[in-house]
Amino acid sequence: MLARQRKGYVVSRLTRGQGEVVFNSPTHQRGRVSSPTRQQGRVAVHLGRALLARLRGGLICAFACCLGFVVSAGVSAAADLVEATTQFRTGKYAECIEQATELVTQNDYHEPAWVLKIQAEMTVGRYADAAKSLDAALAKLNGSVQLRWLGRDVCRHTQQLERADKFNAEIVGLLQQAPWRYSDLTSQLVIGRWMLSQQTDPKQVLTKIYNEAKRRQPTNVDVWLAIGDLALDKHDYKLAGDSFQQGVKLDAENPAAHFGVARAFAPSDSKKADAALQATLALNPRHVAALLMVADEQIDSEQYDEAEKQLLQVLTINPQQPRALAYRAVIAHLRNKLDQEKQLRAAALKSWPANPEVDYVIGQKLSQKYRFAEGSAYQRQALKSDPKYLVAKIQLAQDLLRLGQEEEGLKLAEEVYAADGYNVLAHNLVTLQEHLAKFRTLEADGLQVRMDAREADIYGQRVLALLQRAKKELCEKYKVTLEQPIIVEMFPKQQDFAIRTFGMPGGSGFLGVCFGTVITAPSPASQGTSPACWEATLWHEFCHVVTLTKTKNKMPRWLSEGISVYEEGAEDPTWGQAITPRYREMLLGDELTPVSKLSGAFLSPASPAHLQFAYLESSLVVKFFLEKYGRDKLERLLVDLSVGMPINESLGRYTGSIATLDDEFAKYAREQAKAMAPLADWTEPELPKRATADEISTWLKDHPTNYIALGRLAAQQLQAKDWPAAQATLTKMTQLYPHDASPGGPYALLARIHREAKDAKQERAVLEKLAALSASDLDMLTRLNELAAAAKDWEPAKKYALRALAVNPLLPAIHRQAATAAEQLNDQRLVADSYRALLLLDPFDRAELHFKLATALQKQGQLAAAKREALLALEETPRYQAAQNLLLELVAAVPTPPLPADKPASASQSDLPAAPEKTP
């Protein structure tokens, strides 16, 4: 059933057309209810106008409810209730409790005031007071669904778990007895929230309840907040964003609406999310959930001191706030204060020992720091507390997949999907398994490479050989022994890579990801118009394997990325990253990040260019450290990290202090930037936007080394086909900036000029300079092969063909180039590999390719295999004379094995060799 329903990956299974990205084909489950009882299903139909008003994951959900209370409260108490609600909204919780207490004293049947009082008491951690208020309220309002819903959390934090469960049954009974009593807006909101907690189909709630409520009351902010909250819970970020933004339009003073916007845009638009978060805190500086979100981001960027300040602010509001204490436990773990971590976890669980959220939060944050083993242990503990806590189960599934424990991880994903068909991560992971089942696995030397079967046949052995070399060299360099198999998965479809890596479609900018012992990467088949060298990518990712193993996954991202980029360049000068004019400007400007805060540069970069700059800067830090302090100190730094020492503390041991390192590196980085092209002038030329060649030339007389102006002049000269002038300008540019490897830069343009002039020698000389700088320019590499082959210079021809295969091994033309060069050099192994690949790339000349492959195999002494290929050539073209002659030679050289006496065979059968074994 699952296989029939799953047809592709999704971003959301909740809505059609709103926030949903469907690959391959639609994936909606029409009318499916996850696991409600028949009674709950009837309640869902009967209360078709119910609304959800709960903010997921926090206790502060009174914002949405209180507006409904204003509608239902008596006129005489309305003003006082508005005042109390405003106090709650602005973080004046003590005043809110006082005002609500006065209201219930005047009228002990004032349900909205009771609910607001309990909410405020829960927010500040006065759980015992909240329990007393609940008892007093229920004594007067025994038929309240609102109080029972709210009472579940009150009872959990006062360790009355049986009573909390009893409230669910009581709600069902009340709704069956007199559903008409709960038709007011506030009760409908609460009932909708409760229905979702009981696994009622969320799409049914959305379409039959919330959308109907929106139709009837389109200006009611609670409806929009309810829809946004449900959409967030099911990962429909577009619907959530639209809904919360509409809430802001309707009530700009509502912190819940702004906070919803912050959460909805956090995965996709950090600027918008940050602005909404600040708006929330401007309205309510003591908004607990918003303060926790700030602390969460600070932990991500390793600003632990700042995060502690935020968390202490939360704890002044509620000293028992579980999530705040859980975050503090995370920081203690990351600082290797394990006893403190245990104490903080115990404190977080004090009011509710079975609260699964505490272990879930700790484990999730540790996994985000690549500590998947520790993270998975916490998720297992969360599931001991509550086996039905699905967010912990799907997090555990992802952790196990990243640890290479795929069987258990996928089993858990199946369980989550069976329990919640709207869980996007589970849906995508289970769907992915159907694709992975078709992969082939290549194994050698503790490596497991999983690839599309066709791609494995074409270049899988090249991948394996590259990884074996990386393992040998990098493990020796960093003194690491890899004890468990390293899994490398290469995906021909980008969305498969994204699902395996992130759980969601997207991630188009990533070339590869390493989790420690698992590497995922999109294969060359998924590359677009800007291909990358897959060999460089795998070398980079395998370096992560080594350094993460060395440090037991206890290293900051900037150092891990910095070492990997550095080692790319150390292995091959055309790999890695170099300072470009844009990076030069950033290094010399105010965009250089201090080493002590470098991890934050990866968290919310202002643009893709800023993210790439973070990689470059990190590699420069590693280069500087090695040049000044040596490899021995780098190794000791990694050992320090492996035992839990904080990065800045360890750096201070070897550099004097982290402040000293910040200052020294800033000076070094600026020196490197100035050395990039010291003779060039990089200022923006004061020229009209559409300046002519004459105008630019005149301006250049006073600014002869301005690189930008020279580039504009060269473009004008090329457009006018003034080849001699353009050549002179471009030559000057290469003298000013010899390392310009840009695809449309001076080397590429000079090569074009020489090609126009049919000067192959000069064209090749220019392209070889570019080839020494770039690893991913496929057109340049294939052209160099052509020029070398035309000059019968076969070693360079072979070299450039192999380099082109390192960018895209799925292009037949490149394999033909490799085969031609290999034949001239008598490299029969490469000849055979090239023709095998061509046969897999749907050629039109299969007979000729089988014949050439047979010839290459014959020269290698593989006569049985050669005989089979000759037969296949004749199967394609029976009168192929050369193949017939070759087959006769092979038949004479390869004796036919005798057949069993009881199984006579025809002559044609006796000539056929056994089918070769497939690569495992």
TrEMBL record:
TPR repeats: 221-254
Protein's name in the database: Tetratricopeptide repeat protein
Keywords for this protein: Membrane, TPR repeat, Transmembrane, Transmembrane helix
Start and end residues of each Peptidase MA-like domain: 535-666
Superkingdom of source: Bacteria
Transmembrane regions: 59-79
InterPro entries reported in the protein's UniProt record: Peptidase_MA-like_dom, TPR-like_helical_dom_sf, TPR_rpt
Disordered: annotated segments: 898-920
Gene3D superfamilies: Tetratricopeptide repeat domain (1.25.40.10)
